[in-house]
Write a structure and sequence with these properties.
about 140 residues; alpha+beta; Double Stranded RNA Binding Domain; two-stranded antiparallel sheet; Peptidyl-tRNA hydrolase; translation release factor activity; hydrolase
Length: about 140
């Protein structure tokens, strides 16, 4: 069972974990041992509340397919248990970030002092550049 928040949990049968061989270098061990974990989670057919499903499916994340299946590949660690834990943590973090509501940006005008500072710095830069011209005798 994976705990997302105080009220939301995912059951083990909802998450499909598959052991696969890790990619990349690692010597002889990497060719023999299936230590990487391939996690798949079907959002549409899960027991998550509807608001969670809507927000997750609205994310523009490459790990979420058009069918609503989240796919996470964990191969950072040498042991299968650590990779399994890492994949589950990454799934929980993805679901939690989908529920964070972004604060709307309110447009503001620049202050009078900031406008004056900008114009002063532009004037200084212009004077510096004008001094680079040809010297008159």
């Amino acid at each position: 069972m994976l705990k997302i928040s105080n009220t939301v949990t995912l059951q083990d049968w909802e998450i499909q974990l598959t052991a696969i061989r890790a990619q990349g270098s690692g010597g002889q061990n990497v060719n023999k041992v299936s230590s990487a974990i391939h996690l798949q989670f079907d959002v549409k057919h899960s027991t998550l509340p509807d608001i969670y499903k809507e927000r997750i499916l609205a994310l523009s994340d490459s790990r979420i397919s058009k069918d609503g299946v989240i796919t996470i590949k964990a191969q950072q660690f040498r042991t299968q248990e650590q990779n399994k834990e890492d994949a589950l943590n990454r799934l929980a973090e993805l679901i939690r970030t989908a529920m964070v509501v972004q604060k709307k940006r309110r447009e503001t005008k620049p202050t009078r002092a900031s406008k004056e500072r900008r114009l002063k710095s532009k004037n200084i830069k212009a004077q510096t550049k004008s001094l680079r011209g040809r010297v008159k005798h």
